[in-house]
Write a structure and sequence with these properties.
The structure holds two protein chains of two kinds.
Chain A (H helix, E strand, L loop, with lengths): L1 H31 L4 H11 L4 H11 L8 H13 L14 H8 L1 H27 L4 H15 L2 H15 L17 H38 L2 H8 L4 H38 L4 H10 L3 H29 L6
Helix pairs in contact in A: 1-13, 2-3, 5-13, 6-7, 6-9, 6-11, 7-9, 8-9, 8-11, 9-11, 11-12, 11-13, 12-13
Chain B lengths: L3 E12 L2 E13 L3 E6 L6 H7 L8 E10 L3 E2 L5 H10 L1 E4 L13 H11 L5 H14 L4 H5 L8 H13 L5 E5 L7 H18 L2 E6 L2 H7 L2 E6 L2 E7 H6 L4 H8 L50 E4 L3 E3 L5 H6 L13
């Protein structure tokens, strides 16, 4: 397994370089956005009826710790802090460490995204197998069509439709926040958390279901045409074993996509959490952009980046475990 | 007594023009201890015929008529479900072309042998593996190493031999090889053919080799059957057929083969193109358009495969054997390309 270790080390090194590149890019990108946190707050104070002088004094008081050093110096300091695991302090949350804010929002994104992804992967892959095997029958055709249609509907339409039907019309599921109760390990709280998560999870699941179905369908069809499947039939292999041969070979290419979509779903969380007023990373990022909270933005972007890169490394390593042809 | 007797077998494919025969009224016998070579051009129906021996004609094809009697089993074309599955691999071993990936790329050879054993409800899997190793060793492979390998770790010649192991490990009495030498270099070809001959002799198999390479098959076969346009046009003992081809197509096929010793220009290509399902003649002889010996009857009456001489020779041709043998009409195909 030394090959495996070397592979892992290589991947991690590559991952670090990518994280650095993205951190640099986002650092300069967020600072290139028009306006700065002080300006935004200044305008807010003006709107609240303060005189320009009062507003400026207030801004100076609140954002006194905002750095006015030249960008390269700020960048150097940022990297130095980052290397020590310090993401800096939020401006909109008055000096609360960014890592802390992100940490408390993170589970409300990771858990729904992961659940949605797993649900849609399982259902989509199973439906894809059926759609492939029954592709010349009406049911197979309908199944494929369902995949294409669902894959084609934009995220916010799905989210709004679910909200309209299950919350507004039928009053089946709650809306807004993560729970109706105080946090704690008790039945009402956990039940409420699940209730609140159903709609976001379903939206994530619907978002990617069609993709899995169509990808698995084409993968199964191509494996069905492979010589070794015919060869196995001509050797009198049982139908169950044959199905296992097909399944394992067909699902392989989907693992890479699974890792990628984990990252894409993080991006999708911005729309979905906004629609359901769900306080995850997406909502947080949106708020940070609204208030020009540079450090929070950088932190959130960085986290999404790390998640995508980590998922990819994991997928790559899984690939070496399940596909002997990739092993060296 | 034949191990496999094919009787008036007709296989049809569904096309936009209706059901068309890919193999028409084929008669063939595979006998123990005998290697039969089945030669023909691409599209002549030889692979379809071989798959029909396992009742495995792929859709949209079907066996429209005829029987495939397997000794001790019965008519394979009537078998379905588990019975059919047991015959495939159990009594009939089929070996794919070396260029084809006939093994699951994600499993080692050994694990796939275990899958095979379980599928056929072999009680003693240990003995099965031992037999597989023994077979591999006798074919010049390192049995232990090969069983621990994945397909991608083996060369073409090794895959071909592993394919033979899979075909024979359950003690099949009939071995069918589809283009066993295609996609192999000359040395591997020779060694695969030697190995086929060896395992064939050791196990007293009834072997069928399907190929377009008349040179390769002539090195090891005992009998030769020639197919054209879905028909077996001639068969008989190999050397006799090669020396005295009695069908104009066989004659042209042998004449088209270049020899290592001798002038390459002595080989002459057969003009025209082989027919496919839709262009093959519906009435009369399927070869008449490219035949230099064609007579009037050829356009209207289809010749049937019939014995014409002692020594087990059969031919399907209206022209007198002596005329073809003497080559009176000389070069084949005075007629141009078929429509």
């Amino acid at each position: 397994m030394t090959g495996f270790g070397r592979r892992l080390a290589g991947k991690l090194a590559m991952g670090l370089v990518m994280v650095w590149a993205v951190a640099t890019f986002t650092f300069f990108l967020v600072r290139a956005l028009p306006g700065n946190p002080g300006d935004v707050q200044y305008e807010n104070y003006i709107l609240m009826g303060m005189s320009p002088g009062q507003a400026q004094a207030r801004v100076n008081a609140v954002y006194g710790f905002t750095s006015h050093e030249p960008l390269p110096r700020q960048y150097g300091g940022y990297l130095w802090q980052l290397a020590q695991g310090n993401l800096g302090q939020s401006t909109s949350y008055s000096g609360v460490p960014v890592a802390h804010i992100i940490g408390s929002a993170l589970p409300w994104t990771v858990i729904p995204v992961l659940s949605g992804l797993i649900v849609s992967f399982l259902i989509g892959v199973a439906a894809g197998v059926v759609a492939a095997v029954k592709r010349s029958s009406r049911w197979g055709g309908l199944l494929s069509l369902s995949g294409s249609v669902v894959a084609g509907v934009p995220t916010f339409v799905v989210a709004l439709l679910l909200l309209l039907v299950f919350h507004t019309e039928w009053h089946l599921l709650p809306f807004g926040g993560t729970s109706d109760y105080e946090a704690g390990w008790n039945a009402p709280y956990v039940g409420s958390v699940i209730e609140h998560a159903v709609l976001p999870v379903c939206t994530y699941a619907l978002l990617s279901y069609g993709g899995w179905l169509l990808a698995m369908k084409s993968s199964v069809i191509s494996v069905l045409g492979d010589d070794f499947i015919l060869a196995a039939e001509l050797r009198g292999i049982t139908p169950v074993t044959r199905a296992r041969y097909i399944g394992r070979n067909a699902i392989l290419p989907l693992f890479t996509v699974l890792a990628l979509s984990f990252g894409l779903m993080f991006g999708g969380s911005i729309f979905i959490e906004n629609t359901f007023d769900y306080p995850g990373l997406g909502s947080l990022l949106l708020k940070a952009i609204g208030t020009r909270d540079y450090t929070l933005m950088s932190g959130a972007f960085l986290l999404i980046t790390v998640a995508v890169i980590a998922a990819n490394i994991l997928a790559d390593l899984c690939y070496t475990l399940i596909d002997p042809r990739v092993r060296r | 007594m034949s191990e496999v007797s094919v009787r008036s077998l007709t296989i049809e494919y569904q096309t936009s023009a209706g059901w068309l025969p890919a193999v028409a009224d084929a008669w063939l016998d595979l006998r123990p201890g005998e290697i039969t070579g089945l030669v023909g051009e691409s599209g002549s129906g030889k692979s379809t015929l071989a798959l029909a021996l396992l009742n495995a004609v792929p859709a949209p094809g079907r066996i429209a008529a005829g029987t495939v009697e397997l000794a001790g089993v019965g008519d394979v074309t009537r078998l379905t479900g588990k019975q059919l599955r047991k015959v495939r691999g159990g009594a009939l071993g089929y070996v794919f072309q070396a260029s084809q990936n006939s093994l699951n790329p994600l499993k080692t050879i050994g694990r796939q042998l275990l899958d095979l054993g379980r599928s056929h409800e072999v009680a003693d899997l240990r003995a099965l593996i031992a037999r597989a190793k023994d077979l591999a060793d006798r074919m010049g492979l390192d049995g232990d190493r090969v069983l621990d390998s994945y397909q991608h770790q083996l060369s073409g010649g090794m895959r071909q031999r592993v394919g033979i192991v899979f075909a024979l490990v359950l003690n099949a009495k009939v071995l069918i090889l589809d283009e066993p030498t295609t996609a192999l270099d000359m040395l591997s070809q020779a060694s695969v053919l030697d190995i086929v001959r060896k395992v064939h002799d050791e196990n007293q198999l009834s072997t069928l080799i399907i190929t377009h390479d008349i040179g390769a098959v002539s090195e090891i076969a005992d009998r030769l059957a020639v197919m054209y346009g879905g028909r077996i046009v001639e068969d008989g003992p190999l050397l006799d057929v090669l020396r005295r081809p009695s069908h104009p197509y066989t004659r042209a096929l042998i004449g088209a083969t270049a020899r290592i010793a001798g002038d390459v220009d002595a080989a002459r290509a057969l003009p025209g193109r082989p027919p496919d399902l839709t262009t093959v003649a519906r009435v009369g002889c399927v070869f008449r358009d490219r035949c230099g010996f064609a007579v009037e009857t050829c356009a209207t009456v289809e010749p049937v495969l019939a014995a014409w001489e002692d020594g087990g020779r059969r031919r399907a041709c209206h022209v007198e054997p002596s005329t073809v043998l003497s080559g009176a009409s000389g070069t084949p195909a005075a007629v141009g390309e078929p429509a």
